[in-house]
Amino acid sequence: MSRHQRGFGLIELLIALALSLVVVLGVAQIFIAAKNTYVSQNSASNMQEDARFVLGKMIQEIRMVGMFGCLGTIDAGSAPDFSASQITPISWDNANLKLTLVTADVGANGGTPTWTVISDCRTSATAYNQVKAPVPGQLAFPIRRLIYSLKNGQLTMGVHGGTPIQSALVDNVSAFNVSFGLASSATEVAASSYSSNPSDPARIRSVRLTLTLTDPNKRVRDQTFNVVAALRNRLQ
Q: Domain check: are 129 and 96 in the same one?
C-alpha cells in the first residue's frame, strides 16, 4: 500500500475522539449552566411577582384603615358589633402571626362587606351589618374587617363576617412580620420609632410589612421583602 493511501492510525483516532469528547463536555457544561441560571432567575422572578402582588394589596388596604365615612360620629345601633369609638382599626397578633384591618372597601368588587355605613355627610351616619343600600341623598361606605394570617407556609386573607373563610394568597412563606411606625406623641406627624406592639394607637403613623418567601426546590435562596405604608387616617 502506498504511503499516500494510508488512513488514520489508532493513536490519531484516539486523540481525535478525546478532543471531540472534551469539546462535547464543554458545550454540555455551558448548556447546563445556562439552563440552571435561567431556572434560578425564573424562580426568583416568580417570588418577586408573588411578593409584589401580596404586599401591594395589603398596602392598598392599610392606606384605607380607619376610614369609616364622612362623619366622625357613627350610630352603631343597627350594628351592635360596630362602634367607631371602640373598634380597633388595625392590630397585630405576633403570637399567632395574624394582622387584622378594619378598612374602607377598595373598589366595587370587594365582595360582601362586614358593615355598611349610611350617611348624608351632614348630620347622620348609621352602621348596618353587611350590605345596606342608601336612599337618595345618602352615601354608602362599605367597611370590611380583613384578617391576614400565616399558617403552614401560606399567607391567607379572609373577610370577617361571622366565621371568616381564609383564602390563600401566596404559598411558600417562611416568615411574616408587622411593625408600626410610631410618632413621639399623638400630635407629631413623622414616625420616629418602630414597635410590633404599640400601646397608643394614636401614635401610629405607618406600617412596615416584612415577608420572606422560600423556593421549595431550593434553586434560589430565601428572599425577604420589606415595604412601608403610611396611614391616611389617624387612629384614635
A: yes
Determine, yes or no, domain membership for 128: yes
**Joined grid coordinates for residue 66:** 380607619
- Tell me if 114 is assigned to some domain: yes
Domain range for 85:
67-169
Ramachandran quadrant class, 172 (left: phi over 0; alpha: psi -120 to 50; beta: rest): left
Total structural domains in the chain? 2
**Per-residue tens of pLDDT for the chain, all 236 residues:** 455 556 667 777 788 788 888 888 888 888 887 777 777 888 889 999 999 999 999 999 998 888 888 888 888 877 888 887 668 889 999 999 999 999 887 655 567 888 999 999 999 899 998 888 999 999 999 998 899 999 999 999 988 765 557 888 999 999 999 999 999 988 888 888 999 988 888 889 999 999 999 998 888 899 999 999 998 887 76
> Which backbone phi and psi does 225 adopt, to 5 degrees?
-120, 135
In whole angstroms, how far apart are CA 191 and each of 57, 58, 63, 128, 230? Answer: 23, 20, 16, 35, 10
> Any bridge partners for residue 141, and if so which?
117
Q: Does residue 193 share a domain with residue 114?
A: no
Instruction: Report how far apart, in Å, the C-alpha atoms of 106 and of each of 42, 61, 134, 177 are.
Output: 32, 7, 18, 24
Is-contact 102 88, C-beta < 8 A?
A: yes
Which pTM value belongs to this model? 0.79
